[in-house]
Amino acid sequence: GTGPYSLAEHKADQYIKLVRFKGYVSRKEPADGTFGERKQLPSEIDFIPVPDNNTRVEGAVAGQYDYADGLPIEAYDRLQKSGKSAPVLLPDLGWPFFAFNLRAGPMSHLKLRQAVAAALCPADMLQAAFGDKKFYNLDAALYPKSYGWHNEEGAQVYNQHDPQKAAKLLKEGGYDGAPLRILTSHQYEFHYQMAEVAKACLEEAGFKVQLDVVDWATLTQRRGNPKLWDIYVTHSFFNAEPATYSSYDSSSPIGWDTPERTKILNAFLSATDEKQREQAFAQVQKLVWEQLPYYKVGSFAWLAAANRKMTGVPKIGWPVFWNAEVSK
Question: Model-level pTM?
Fold first, then answer.
């Protein structure tokens, strides 16, 4: 490779060891996120998988790691009090969403997806999943205001929590009372917490709801079979380029494949001028809220922890350590 570090050793489920790549020549511009100078300050970088949340938090609080990523938000106050590690809070890093099965079952009918959208209560769902408002934002836009892609098209469909309207749409859509199967997992606890609240809101509107709680590997397997689910709960980070989201692909488990999608998406993909692309993406967002291939619940912050004596690690979603330095 040509990066500042090379792979020295990998032991499955134990660690990945990187060492300085001796042939690397850095750029000279000041470091800015992933751009600019890469000084190769650490002689070695070890990545250690710690799948258990509690173990990861305890290790961060105790100063066992120089950087711990993907921590539960409940750990924020403990990290603030820790003399070893400081919390690193990255606002609006990702967004949870409910993906609809457009290939088969009740969610293949637009009226019933509209009923779900009318019934859902994202304010309550986010509160249950993330607690303090500093950890989440109630926002219909598919990108936060810090992105050029931000727009307000279709926002009126979001955060309705109107069980009477949902019940009317259920009747118009010919809902037969079959259980709405929501596929979720404890792998990401906030997925499950949102699904629990969504179940109550949907039942209030007249849906029968079945929560299918499985491990993440089983979820990713089942969502490939449209006979096994109606909604699955997932999340994504905000990609710099909207075209990279698989949910817009007709071959994804969602199966969004309408003439309108093809026309609007092609217009976006063929636009070359930045302003034109932003305007074209606004039409993509409008169509998402009109046809509802998925329902964006909101946006959430990401919590990590960093050694209080360490500098040089940018506050970004995919941390890099080539300029990291720990003072003695």
Answer: 0.86
